[in-house]
Design goal:
Helix content is about 35%, strand content about 15%. The chain is of the alpha/beta class. A seven-stranded mixed β-sheet has the order 1-3-2-4-5-6-7, with helices on both faces. Helix 3 crosses helix 4. The longest helix is centred in the middle third of the chain and has 15 residues.
């Protein structure tokens, strides 16, 4: 059973709360969409329902993004670029922490899960918020955009986040492989070699950075599976959909 109490949440966040949550875990879900739009169903609501069915509270965040008008008329319309999405996610974390008891979750067991550009958002936020009063306890970037400076950069996501002619200092500061802190939370990372949208080297850069900084993480690297599948077995390979079971196993090991 799900319930919704809009008085406790920001307007752009939808909770999916299970009747029983044995681990007391909550996950803020950030859909992808190149920082121009959001795949609210496949990478939002479907993911949240799956988490809820497995006894995990989920909160789908419709974070600020450029919008279709900015995508089509980018030289005239800016849209809501960085840092608005980051601020939305930070505020969402504060809100959920403040009302954790109402949702049957523990303040020290709230994590982020993001897909594609949403994967970049959650990893950047986890790095920036590490050690703060409201800090995330784990992060799961799924086939994420990672770098804003490397040759494998997903250019549409960079344009949605920073505009047509981004400043070099912003590109560097938003390349999450460059800024892994020593107190980074544990990471569950997923990607596929045949991803036709975000080059698989993005995830490899992040895996290398996490390894170099001795951050506990699990890297699920699949040969086939593509992009944009969320938790739908019909949109990916039998190999890649295993990430769902592996994530639940990883989460249980993290908190047991």
């Amino acid at each position: 059973m799900l319930f919704f109490n809009s008085s406790l949440l920001a307007q752009k966040m939808t909770p999916f709360i299970p009747e029983e949550n044995p681990l007391g875990v909550g996950v803020i879900v950030c859909p992808g969409g190149s920082y121009f739009w959001l795949d609210k169903e496949t990478e939002g609501n479907e993911v949240a329902r799956w988490l809820c069915q497995n006894g995990i509270a989920a909160f789908v965040l419709e974070y600020s993004h450029g919008g279709w008008a900015a995508f089509a008329f980018h030289l005239r319309i800016r849209g809501r670029r960085f840092p608005f999405g980051f601020l939305d996610l930070s505020n969402a974390l504060d809100s959920i922490c403040a009302h954790a008891d109402d949702y049957g979750i523990r303040k020290d067991r709230i994590g982020f899960m993001g897909f594609s550009a949403g994967g970049h958002l959650v990893m950047h936020a986890a790095e920036q918020l590490a050690g703060n009063r409201s800090s995330v306890s784990f992060v799961a970037p799924i086939y994420p955009v990672v770098s804003m400076t490397h040759g494998c950069t997903h250019l549409r996501s960079r344009r949605g986040l920073l505009g047509e002619r981004p400043r070099s200092d912003l590109m560097d500061s938003l390349s999450v492989e460059h800024h892994v802190p020593a107190n980074c939370p544990p990471v569950f990372l997923v990607n596929c070699d045949d991803d036709p949208v975000v080059h698989h080297h993005n995830a490899e850069l992040l895996d290398s950075a996490l390894t170099a900084h001795n951050i506990p993480h699990r890297y699920e690297h699949f040969t086939t599976g593509g992009h944009g599948f969320g938790v739908s077995e019909h949109k990916t390979s039998e190999e890649a959909i295993q990430w769902k079971d592996h994530f639940l196993e990883w989460l249980n090991n993290l908190f047991n």
